[in-house]
Specification:
Number of domains: 1
Largest sheet: none
Structural class: mainly alpha
Order of helices and strands: HHHHHHHHHHHHHHHHHHHHH
Shape: globular
Number of strands: 0
Length: about 425
C-alpha cells in the first residue's frame, strides 16, 4: 500500500470529468477505478474480486426487499389512505393541506423509505388538491419535495442499510431508531414554515378536528402502518434481522395491496416488480463499482490524506463539523444519494469519528445532507420529479422552497451539534 499522487489524480480527476460529461455514475466510478488500477499495475481480476466482495454482504440483502416493499406499498393504494389519516390529524390548521402533505410524507416515508417515491406518489395527489383549494402551485410543489426527505430518515430506509454496509459494522437497528426523532423535527420545522407562510398568504383552513373521523381513518390505515411495526419492532426487539424483517414485510405488503386494499391485480403486480428490478439493478451496480472505488481510495490512503488536509486547516470541532456538512451538501448538488453514501463514507467517516461524531450520528447527518441534495440543482432528483408532476418550472420551485431549505438546515445543525437528537431513542432501546 502506498500514496501515489498521480494515481490519486487519475482516480479523482477522471471520475469528476466523467460526472461533468454526464456519464452514468456507475460507469464513472467503475471506469475511474479501472484506470487507476491499470496505472498502478494491479491485476484487473481485482475489479471482479472487489465487486463480488462489495455485494457479498448479509446486511445488503435487505436492500432488494426494502425496495420491493416500497414499490408494492407505493402502488397499492397506500398514499390515499395515509393522506386521509394525515388530514384527520392536522387538516384543521391554517394551511391545513400543506400540513397534511408534510404529515402524510412522514407516514408514507415509513413505508416506502424513498424520497423520490414519496414525491411522485404524494405529489400526484396533493399538488392538484392544494392548487384547487387556492394554494400557489410553486408553494404546493415546494412543500411536497421538501417533506419527502422525511422518508429517508423514518425507517425502514434502504439508504440506511447502504450506509451501515459502507461504514462497516454499524447496527441497522440503531440507525432505524435514530431516524425517528430527526424525522419528526424535520416535519415540525417544515410545518412551522408552512404555517407562517400560510398565515401571511391567507391560505384556507380545513374542517374542524373530529376524533371520530380520526379513528375511522386510523382503522383504514392501520394495515399500512403495521408494515412499519413488522420491520422496526422485529429488528429492535431482536426477533429477526433487518434482512429477515424486510423479506417478511414484502410478503405482508403484497397481501395488503392485493387482498386488503385490492389496489393491485396480477397484471399490475408484474409491472411493479419490473420497476423494482430497474431500481435494484442501479443500486447493486453502484454498490459493486463503489466497492472498487473504495478499494482504490484505501490502497492510496486517500481517507487519511483527506483527514490530514482538513484538520490541517483547523482543529476547531465546530468548523470541522461544518466543513463535513458543506462537503456533503456540495456533493449532493452533483451526485445522487447512494453514490455519495458509498463513496464519501470511507473518506469522511474516519474524520467524523476523530472529532467525536459517532457512527450513528454521522449516518443521520449523511442521510439528511444527501436528502437536501435531492432538492438542489443541477442533479436534484426530487426537484425534477416535483417539476414533472406539477408542471412548475425548476426556477420557481427553488425560489418557493428557499424558506423550507432554511428549515431543513436548522434541523441539520441540530443533528450535527446535538448528539442526543440522533442517539436518544437508540439509547432508550439499549443501543
Amino acid at each position: 500500500m502506498t500514496t501515489n499522487p498521480v494515481a490519486i489524480a487519475i482516480l479523482i480527476g477522471s471520475f469528476l470529468i466523467m460526472i461533468l460529461l454526464r456519464f452514468h455514475i456507475a460507469f464513472a466510478v467503475g471506469i475511474a477505478s479501472t484506470m487507476c488500477l491499470l496505472y498502478l499495475g494491479i491485476p484487473l481480476n481485482t475489479v471482479c474480486q472487489q465487486m463480488v466482495k462489495g455485494l457479498n454482504s448479509f446486511s445488503l440483502m435487505a436492500v432488494p426487499f426494502f425496495i420491493t416493499m416500497g414499490c408494492l406499498m407505493g402502488s397499492g393504494g397506500i398514499s390515499e389512505k395515509l393522506i386521509g389519516l394525515a388530514n384527520s390529524l392536522v387538516g384543521w390548521m391554517h394551511g391545513g393541506l400543506a400540513m397534511v402533505n408534510i404529515v402524510a410524507s412522514y407516514f408514507f416515508g415509513g413505508i416506502s423509505g424513498s424520497a423520490t417515491a414519496d414525491t411522485a406518489s404524494i405529489g400526484k395527489l396533493m399538488i392538484p388538491l392544494m392548487v384547487d383549494a387556492g394554494y400557489d402551485d410553486d408553494f404546493s410543489t415546494a412543500v411536497t419535495i421538501t417533506s419527502s426527505v422525511e422518508g429517508l430518515l423514518v425507517p425502514p430506509s434502504h439508504n440506511m442499510v447502504i450506509y451501515a454496509t459502507a461504514a462497516g459494522g454499524v447496527s441497522v437497528g440503531a440507525l432505524f431508531m435514530a431516524g425517528y426523532l430527526p424525522g419528526a423535527l424535520l416535519a415540525g420545522s417544515l410545518m412551522i414554515g408552512s404555517y407562517i407562510i400560510s398565515k401571511k398568504r391567507h391560505y384556507p383552513k380545513g374542517d374542524k378536528f373530529s376524533f371520530k373521523v380520526f379513528i375511522d381513518q386510523l382503522k383504514i390505515s392501520v394495515w399500512a402502518l403495521l408494515a412499519i411495526l413488522i420491520v422496526v419492532v422485529g429488528v429492535v426487539c431482536g426477533v429477526f434481522t433487518a434482512t429477515e424483517s424486510a423479506a417478511i414485510a414484502v410478503i405482508y405488503s403484497l397481501f395488503v395491496s392485493m387482498v386488503i386494499y385490492k389496489a393491485l391485480n396480477w397484471k399490475q403486480l408484474w409491472q411493479v416488480l419490473g420497476e423494482c428490478i430497474d431500481t435494484l439493478a442501479i443500486v447493486l451496480i453502484l454498490c459493486g463499482t463503489s466497492s472498487i472505488f473504495g478499494y482504490c481510495l484505501t490502497y492510496l490512503h486517500v481517507p487519511d490524506l483527506a483527514a490530514t488536509a482538513i484538520t490541517s486547516l483547523t482543529s476547531n470541532k465546530i468548523i470541522l463539523t461544518l466543513l463535513i456538512n458543506l462537503i456533503l451538501l456540495v456533493l449532493g448538488c452533483i451526485m445522487d444519494m447512494a453514490p455519495i453514501i458509498l463513496i464519501a463514507t470511507p473518506i469522511l467517516f474516519p474524520l467524523a469519528t476523530s472529532i467525536g461524531i459517532g457512527p450513528i450520528q454521522f449516518g443521520i447527518m449523511m442521510i439528511l445532507n444527501c436528502g437536501i441534495g435531492l432538492l438542489t440543482p443541477p442533479v436534484g432528483t426530487c426537484l425534477f420529479i416535483g417539476s414533472a408532476v406539477s408542471g412548475v418550472s425548476i426556477e420557481r420551485i427553488v425560489k418557493a422552497a428557499l424558506p423550507f431549505y432554511a428549515c431543513m438546515l436548522v434541523v441539520l445543525m441540530m443533528v450535527s451539534f446535538i448528539p442526543q437528537v440522533s442517539l436518544l431513542i437508540p439509547h432508550l432501546f439499549g443501543y
